[in-house]
Amino acid sequence: MVVNTLGEKNSLFNQFIAEIRDINIQKDPLRFRRNLERVGEIFAYEISKELDFSESSIQTPLGESLTNLPSCEVVVASILRAGLPLHTGLLNYFDRSENAFISAYRKYADNGEFKINFEYISSPSIDGKVVILADPMLATGSSMELAYKAMLTKGTPKHVHIVAVIGSEEGVEFIKNKLPNENITIWMGAVDKDLNSKSYIVPGCGDAGDLAFGAKLG
After folding, report:
1. Which domain CATH number covers 139?
2. Is 195 helix (H, G, I), strand (E, B) or coil?
């Protein structure tokens, strides 16, 4: 399974990741959401290089232009609610794609342990299509595994691109071990070494959903 970590190469992408992490910049939810969106746009551009293309003829006012255009169908899928700004960024570039939304969340017990609960999925058929499955944080990897399996109830994809802005080494290894290798590519912004006792990525950026949309009850 190929793992592409965009933050390993110097580019403006690193500035957006730095601002997503910055505790002072995080105080502005609009900027936090916009940074997630901009990161999504960069992911979309990089993923587009891996798609199938075919030659097309474009009629201009002065003649004909031959160019290579993407020839595959794309479905952009995100885990609610934190995935919405990242989803928007991906959709800004894959503007002709279909869309899917998955509701999954951590259900905590009194002792602080949690399990991932799945509520519903809204998705078109993904048979033979390229699926881009996005969630800002890849902590333990459990929610991404659940989301991937939920998507498979909607068909058999041609290829799946898993996208996360920040992940843990443990989460990446979990996905590599739990999901099939032959038709999945992982795209990360940055990979951090540790998870704390609550399974939050360290240093990470905190709770992406709360930072984007405000703190939630429960």
Report:
1. 3.40.50.2020
2. strand
**What is the tens place of the pLDDT at every residue in 133-148?**
999 999 999 889 999 9
Domain assignment of residue 142, yes or no: yes
Check whether the bond before 203 is cis (ω within 30° of 0).
Answer: yes
Alpha carbon of 55 to those of 39, 65, 128, 163: distances in Å? Answer: 29, 10, 20, 28
Residue 20 placed within a domain: yes
Angle at 182 between CA 14 and CA 131, to 5 degrees: 60
Domain presence at residue 57: no
Cα gap 43→187, rounded to integer Å: 8
Kindly state whether residue 140 falls inside one of the protein's structural domains: yes
- Residue 130 phi/psi, 5-degree rounding, is -90, 125
pTM: 0.92
Considering only CA atoms, which of 136, 151, 148, 104 is closest in space to residue 210? 136
